[in-house]
Write a structure and sequence with these properties.
Number of domains: 2
CATH superfamily of the largest domain: VC0802-like
Largest sheet: 6 strands, antiparallel
Radius of gyration: 16 Å
Number of strands: 6
CATH topology of the largest domain: VC0802-like
Structural class: alpha+beta
Number of helices: 4
Strand content: 35-45%
Length: about 140
């Protein structure tokens, strides 16, 4: 697979920090045929947990949230990078953005164990369009 970079929107919602809360939301998403490109869980110091949702369809997620009682924050913007898992796969992306003085303030990546990887990359909103041009998306 050639390197594939795409713009993605994401949202987050806060739930109580207790077992089963992510399951409830993920079950609703699955039952509503809402596909996620990525998903994250982050603890919150106030006894809550942030669930970060990267939907394939922003409209479908918004419709479910309105009917399901979830309050979504967003959309925020990030990049989803997918490609062949090889040594140094992310080096050129980080070099190009660094050379342009664009700070990557967060990122999460994983390999699939079968030769491919996915990487969610976050830049500041004011750098997003410049980063998109550099990444050719």
């Amino acid at each position: 697979m050639a390197l594939k970079v795409r713009r993605i929107d994401y949202f987050y919602t806060t739930v109580k920090d207790k077992p089963g809360e992510a399951y409830k939301l993920l079950s609703q998403l699955a039952a509503s045929d809402i596909n996620l490109l990525a998903f994250g869980i982050t603890p919150d110091a106030r006894g809550h947990t942030s669930l970060t949702l990267f939907p394939e369809s922003v409209e479908e997620l918004a419709r479910l949230a309105a009917g399901g009682g979830y309050s979504l924050v967003g959309p925020q913007r990030a990049f989803l990078i997918q490609g062949d898992d090889e040594l140094g796969a992310l080096v050129e992306i980080h070099r190009a953005l660094g050379d342009a003085q664009i700070n990557i303030y967060a990122g999460n990546g994983v390999t699939d164990g079968a030769g491919s990887f996915g990487y969610v990359l976050y830049v500041k909103p004011e750098d997003y369009e410049q980063a998109a041009r550099l990444l050719r998306v």
